[in-house]
Amino acid sequence: MVDAYADARLVSLYDVLNPWGPSDDFYLDLVMSASSVLDVGCGTGTLLRRARDSGHEGRLCGVDPAEGMLDQARRHPDVEWVLGDLSSVSGPFDLVVMTGHVFQVFLTDDDIRGTLAGVRRMHGEGGRFAFETRNPAFRAWERWTPEHGVTVTGADGADVRVEHAVETPVEGHLVRFATTFSSPAWDAPEVSPSTLRFVDATALSCFLSEAGLAVLGQYGDWDRRPFGDASPEIITIAAPASR
Known about the structure:
4-stranded antiparallel beta sheet; alpha/beta; 7-stranded mixed beta sheet; 23% helix; 7 helices
């Protein structure tokens, strides 16, 4: 078992497996309209690097607990990269983002409350918080099966097969699964275990309200269609609630 966010060979595949797409365009528009931005769980830093390349001149800060991911991000020193969590960063920021379904790695109520409290502290007067989490009613994990795996080519030219297998039955809010990376060029496959939490819209609203954050807008997909029961995503833009 390996940590896909720490193993250098697997980290090098991250951007290949997660190419720029509609979700990144959604967040980039928000980033470019804010003078200071914190990306929580920034990974390899693709979003903030694109913002800087697109002419953003303000403060751009990415924080992530995975040294392997930040090793990739730090190849671009024109952005502030911080190893750690929200307690490792000093605000305030006009915009806090949490992309790539990072919100789902917080598995307990206390984890979520602590994270949202930390986000709230990053805001001064005003400011926005944008993030997404998968809608549990869409049951995305049912498509995380070996037959839906993909083959990608790494920077070294080796083909790598990536497959998911979910532990069943899935009960409650937590989905546990393993990702297997295999290549003819490797001695053996690498297997990385993961657990994600799926929070529904009602519970999410309660968590945000407890943290002093008010929902400004909520969407069900990256084209900004309204959120509904069958939406694949719960995309939320929130702000500190007025007192």
